[in-house]
Amino acid sequence: MVEKGDMRVLPIVGTEIAEKWDTLFYFLVASSVFFFVIVVGALLWFVYKYREKEPGQAVGKIIHNQKLEFLWVLGPTILVLFIFAWGWAVYDRLKIAPESAYDIKVIGKQWMWQFQYDTGTKTIGELVVPEKVPIRLLMSSEDVIHAFFVPDFRIKSDVVPGFYTTVWFQAMQVGEHDIYCTQYCGTSHAKMLGKVKVVSADDWDKWRKGSAGPKEHPKDLAEWGKQVYMEKGCSACHSLDGSRLVGPSFKGVFGKTEEMVDGSKHLVDENYIRDMVENPATAATPNKVIKGYQPVMPSFKGLISLEEMNAIIAFIKSMKD
């Protein structure tokens, strides 16, 4: 990851956020070294200066200095707040993906990484992305907790069963970058590896057009989701044109903040959809029922695979106003 002769402490910089992350990291290291030298240096100086030169020698009376104490409290406080603000800015940049980001679904399972694209294509162990294009990863696990980590990109996120987590990046140049699982997940945890293959825009278009989707469903992920919508009977309760049925219409619902029966509000995102499919609302959970509807949806837990869940979410997201 680091070429011979490279004096960098960290891996190569593969994304814009990695450069910002590194700058903050080096500042923290430099600050720590600076204050370590000051504190330890002062400690050694005082040990020497006020040492007992003769047996029984009295030590001079030490009087506190209010100005020095005030500055000693104020200075570190300002520094800590400055570091917090800087760190928050980097974290905020890292967590909030641009609206134009291209979504790729990631499934972690013992002991491999599987990737789903909007064409319906699936790859295992290799994530193919275009350079200089924002990529948003929507991740979940089929078994235990994993953690998706690309050192060159400075991105890491837990991958949790029954829940979606997200992370995004924008690769700066063509090349390959290692993927690791950093959450112990069983006997072959150390072998749960992969590669991010960054290609040019032209090669990306060729790869997408030439990649063959699975034969059992349409190549487009949203189209596959529509197929799942029909096969699983979702059409009986959820319309696609905005009309009211037993349940809310899929048209334009994704990304909206809906009012629930109990007066609370909830953003209709990937996790809300998945939760309602696998653990639908009941009379005892009015905070999950959209106002105007009844908690009558059955659970599809065990009846729909994670890949199908990703597909139907992609379909609902495509149903814009």
In short:
With 321 residues, this protein is α+β, with helices and mostly antiparallel strands. It has helices at residues 16-49, 66-95, 201-210, 221-231, 270-278, 306-318; strands at 102-109, 112-116, 122-124, 126-130, 135-141, 146-150, 155-159, 165-169, 175-181, 194-199, 257-259, 265-267.
Describe the protein in words.
By secondary structure, the chain is an alpha+beta fold. It has 6 helices and 12 strands. The chain has helices at residues 16-49, 66-95, 201-210, 221-231, 270-278, 306-318; strands spanning 102-109, 112-116, 122-124, 126-130, 135-141, 146-150, 155-159, 165-169, 175-181, 194-199, 257-259, 265-267. The strands form 3 sheets. It has a 5-stranded mixed beta sheet, with helices on one face. A hairpin with a 5-residue loop joins β11 and β12 (265-267). Residues 1-5 have low confidence and may be disordered.
What gyration radius follows from the Cα positions, in whole Å? 27 Å
Structural class: alpha+beta
Global morphology: elongated
Largest sheet: 5 strands, mixed
Enumerate how many helices there are, as a single number.
Answer: 6
Helix content range:
25-40%
Q: Please state roughly what percent of the residues sit in beta strands, choosing from under 5%, 5-15%, 15-25%, 25-35%, 35-45% or over 45%.
A: 15-25%
Low-confidence stretches: 1-5
Order of helices and strands: HHEEEEEEEEEEHHEEHH
Give average pLDDT, whole number: 84
Tell me the total number of β-strands: 12
Strand order of the largest sheet: 3-2-1-5-8
The separation of the N and C termini measures 46 Å
